[in-house]
Each structure stands twice: as C-alpha cells, then as structure tokens.
C-alpha cells in the first residue's frame, strides 16, 4: 500500500512539473529530461527504504537501489550534461555556428536600401515612451486599470502606418477568475505621432476580448493552449502580439529547430493564434501572411550575427584578426521595398566608436546584407547628440537610421529624466560630428542641413545629384526666431513649396524683399517646407 502511495505521489508531482513547465518533448531540448531525472532520483530515494536505528543512532539502508532506476538516471545525466557538451560546444562546432546566419550578401550603399522619408513619417516614439503613453490612457479609465495591466509593446505596420501595439493582460489570478472571457482589448500608440494613442475595445461593433494570453491560467494560457493542441514536441519562441489590417488581434509565435546539437536555434515558420478564439494556424516562412512583420526573433539574429563575426577564422583566433561584433543592438527598420529588417552596425572587436559597416536582416526570410561603409556606431551618435545639449542633461533614445536627402542619418529623441521627449537630434552616420538638434523635427532637419552644408558636403559629395537650382522671384517672405536663431520662410513664383533658410546659409536673406530675383538650390525631397542649400539675391547685386 505504501509503495502504491509513493508511486501515485511521484506521478502527481511529475504531472505538476510537466503541466507548469511545459518542456519540449524532442531531441535537443533538455527540459523534459531534467524533470525525468528529478523524478528518477526521488524514486531511487524512496526505493532505498531508509530506517533509523535508535540504539546505534544511525541511518541504515534496508534495501539496495533499483538497478534499472540507477541506469536510467545515468542515461538522463548523459543526455542532460554530456551530449550538449559534445554536440554543441562552440570550440568544436565553430564553423557551423559561423554559417548559421546563412549567406551574407555584399550590399552597395546603405542609403540605396533605406527608403527616403518625409519627416512626418520618422519614428519619434520608442518603446519606453509608448509604455508611458499606454499607461496614461489606461490610467484614464480607473475601472479598467484596476483589472488589467499593459503587456509588452511590439512595433508593426498597420495599413502602412507604423504603430506600437500592446495587449491588455490579466493582473493576477483572481482578476482572471472574474474575467475568464478575456481582457478588454489592446492599446495602439503611433510611432510617428505621440498624440495618436488609442485604446481599442471594439472592432466592427464587436467587443475585443483577449482570452488567450501569457497572463491567463490553465487552458487559456497561450503557451499551454499550444502545448496541449499538438505543439508539445515543437520549439516555440517569441510570442509577439500583432494585429492584422482589420485590427483583429493575434499571437505570432516563431517555430524553430535545433540545428547544432542542443543549440543553433533556427526559425522555420510561425504558429498564429487568434487571441480571442484560440484558433491555430501554422505557416512556413514563405507562406506566412504579409501582415506579419517578424518571423526571425531578435535574439536568434543577434546570436547568429555575433557568431558570424566572431568565428570568421574559427574558434582559435586569439589575435582577433578580422573579427566583427554588433554594436548597440538590433533595431527594426523599413527598407526601400517596404519590407522590415533588423538593422545594426558592425565594429571590429576592441573598437567601439566607429563601425566598419552595417547589416540589414530580413525579419521574415533572414536574408542578410552587409554594407561595407564606415561610420558612427549608435553609441557614438547618441553621445554626439547628448553633447549638443549637455547643459540640459537629456538622454538620447536608440538611434533609428533613415535616408534623408540621400544622406544616411541617425534620428533620435532627447528625453528628460521623466522619459518625456524634449528635443530631437539628427546625426550623419558617416560623420558623427555633423549634428543637428531642435525642438521640432522641422527645426532639427533645418539645423542638420545647415551643419551638413557648412561641412562642404564632405560626407556625401554625390548628394549634389539630388539638388535642384532655380532662378525665380520672391512673392512673400517672413522671419521666425527659434532658440535665438532667425529662420526666413519665403514663397517664390511658379513653385508650390514654402522655402526656409537661415542667415547662416546666406547673409542676404535678412535684407531680401518681395519682388527680388533670387537663385536658390535645394534638395529634392518629400517635404512641403523645403530647406534651401544656397541662396543668392541677384537683385542686390544689380543694385550695387
């Protein structure tokens, strides 16, 4: 009877461990083996039949350990400790790790891949700010805020607009018990406009209920829901919350395999779960719906890029010859082809300030392109921007690369200690001493172009091909003073845009009048207000 009770206790304990930990039941994964090893050790202890002698005051074994259990424990120890060491150690498998990223193509100029962009489309809201704005909109509804908490924000394109999206999650077991049908919606924060914050609780007149999520319990937990519905033997990673173009919420989960023994994680597809109904759909990489931006987890790509640069000459490269490493981290950007990419700089090992090139990795296919052109690392750009406003003590956000007038440029926000955006900064990737800051993006762009032009275009001599020069007549002109600098806004005959320039561009601007004939050059871009590169008042010369 005692033996039956102990067996039942072990089985119950084993069930609880498997149910709570959800280990992958497949070769290359050790979670399930560690649980089995623990159960076998307990079974061995129970089978020993320990007795205590009162006279001798010592513990004695009333029986020998079960040989089958001892052998099983040995096998599990070999599986958990020896096999991973032999099959996965980078010292022995460095060549496989180095090639795991796949073929790395050589790109031309990175500005040819990153799309030119209007300043209205520049990302000015990062994840930290999205969290602050999301918490604010959640706090404006006390009844809701006391029941739920804000989940992790994921950036994605929704109908070609860039948004941070986060689900509302249960804030505890009893909150889940009282609301098993699901939390009431999700939060959307525009990545380009911090005033565009939405709490989405209905779609096409129907209430949104996020039933399946990581903070739910039992069968409603998203990880357990997948586990008990056929995915116990599959590696799943990166539970990303995404919405389709209609606003319907889904969990997008990367399906992966172990390519190098017990390591070398490689994404092979996605499992998409309807967050409201629990419906599961599985796709290979090539068949994944277009609204899904990310298949390749950032952690996988980061590890594979570092291994690609680290083991360029194998494991025993103690001189660090030709070794490369990623810089600040990976950032999601959108290319000329409107696809999403993981972006990072690459530096030589031991050199942190300057990058030897930049990498774009397709977030769906993992196609990787290396652009061999020098420039500033993200950290150097941040330091340069912060140096411009050091008296204010602002901190720069992680820089985002953009193509501004064919100039590869880092754009970042400058925040106070409370995390609120106070200013903006633009830093030329090719030369981090070329910096523009301002209270608005327009002001920042003007400042950046002024500094760039005063540097005699030394970082991009070919940018002249994107300029236009016209001879025309001024029809209207006004000045505006910002931060002690005078900017002159003017209209000209037969051209629809408004032009702007400062006295740093030309000392003739302050004395220019309506009716003057002028010759101006400017960058051809997507802006309604155009910054002039040169300004020449022909009427002033004639009046001499």
Please tally the β strands and state the result: 31
Distance between the termini: 116 Å
The mean pLDDT is 89
- Nearest-angstrom radius of gyration? 30 Å
Q: Main sheet?
A: 6 strands, mixed
User: Which ranges are low-confidence, i.e. pLDDT below 50, for 5 or more consecutive residues?
Assistant: 461-465
Question: What class do helices, strands and sheet pairing give?
Answer: alpha+beta
**Helix content bin:** 25-40%
Global outline: elongated
Count of individual helical segments: 12
- The percent range for strand residues is 25-35%
Describe this structure in words.
The protein contains twelve helices and 31 strands. Strands 3, 15, 16, 17, 19 and 20 form a six-stranded mixed sheet that branches. Strand 27 and strand 28 form a beta hairpin. About 1% of the residues have low confidence.
Quick tags:
544 residues, alpha+beta, 6-stranded mixed sheet, 5-stranded antiparallel sheet, 31 strands, 34% strand
């Amino acid at each position: 009877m005692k033996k039956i009770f102990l067996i039942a206790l072990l089985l119950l304990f084993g069930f609880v461990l498997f149910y709570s930990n959800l280990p992958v039941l497949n070769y290359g994964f050790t979670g399930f083996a560690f649980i089995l090893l623990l159960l076998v050790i307990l079974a061995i202890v129970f089978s020993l039949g320990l007795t205590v002698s009162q006279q001798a005051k010592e513990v004695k074994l009333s029986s020998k350990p079960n040989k089958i259990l001892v052998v099983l424990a040995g096998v599990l120890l070999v599986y958990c400790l020896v096999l991973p060491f032999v099959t996965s150690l980078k010292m022995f498998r460095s060549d496989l790790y180095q090639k795991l990223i796949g073929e790395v193509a050589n790109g031309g100029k990175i500005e040819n891949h990153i799309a030119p962009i209007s300043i209205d489309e520049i990302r000015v809201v990062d994840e930290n700010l999205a969290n602050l704005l999301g918490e604010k909109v959640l706090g404006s509804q006390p009844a809701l805020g006391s029941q739920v908490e804000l989940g992790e924000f994921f950036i994605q394109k929704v109908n070609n607009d860039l948004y941070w999206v986060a689900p509302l999650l249960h804030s505890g077991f009893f909150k889940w018990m009282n609301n098993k049908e699901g939390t009431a919606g999700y939060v959307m924060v525009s990545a380009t406009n911090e005033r565009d914050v939405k709490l989405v609780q209905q779609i096409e007149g129907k209430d949104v209920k996020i039933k399946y999520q990581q903070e739910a319990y039992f069968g409603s937990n998203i990880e357990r829901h997948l586990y008990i519905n056929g995915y116990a033997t599959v590696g799943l990673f990166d539970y990303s919350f995404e919405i389709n173009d209609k606003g319907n919420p889904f969990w997008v989960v990367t399906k992966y395999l172990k390519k190098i023994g017990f390591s070398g994680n490689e994404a092979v597809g996605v499992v998409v779960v309807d967050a409201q109904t629990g419906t599961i759909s599985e796709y290979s990489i090539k068949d994944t719906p277009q609204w899904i931006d990310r298949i390749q987890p950032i952690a996988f790509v980061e590890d594979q890029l570092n291994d690609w640069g680290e083991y360029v000459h194998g494991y025993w490269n103690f001189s660090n010859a030709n070794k490369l490493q990623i810089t600040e981290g990976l950032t999601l950007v959108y290319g000329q082809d409107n696809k999403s990419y993981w972006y990072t700089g690459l530096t030589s090992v031991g050199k942190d300030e300057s990058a030897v090139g930049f990498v774009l990795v397709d977030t769906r296919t993992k196609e990787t392109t290396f652009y061999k052109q020098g420039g500033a690392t993200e950290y150097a750009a941040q330091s340069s921007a912060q140096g411009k406003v050091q008296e204010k003590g602002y901190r720069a956000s992680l820089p985002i690369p953009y193509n501004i007038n064919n100039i590869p440029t880092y754009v970042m926000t400058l925040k106070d200690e409370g995390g609120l955006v106070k200013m903006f900064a633009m830093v030329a990737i090719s030369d981090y001493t070329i910096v523009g800051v301002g209270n608005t993006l327009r002001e920042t762009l003007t400042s950046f172009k002024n500094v760039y032009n005063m540097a005699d275009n030394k970082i991009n001599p070919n940018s002249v091909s994107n300029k236009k020069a016209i001879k025309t007549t001024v029809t209207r002109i006004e000045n505006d003073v910002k931060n002690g600098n005078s900017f002159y806004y003017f209209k000209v005959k037969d051209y629809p845009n408004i032009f702007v320039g400062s006295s740093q561009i030309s000392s003739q601007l302050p004395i220019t009048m309506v009716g003057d004939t002028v010759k101006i050059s400017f960058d051809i871009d997507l802006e309604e207000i155009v910054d002039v590169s040169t300004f020449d008042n022909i009427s002033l010369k004639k009046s001499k």
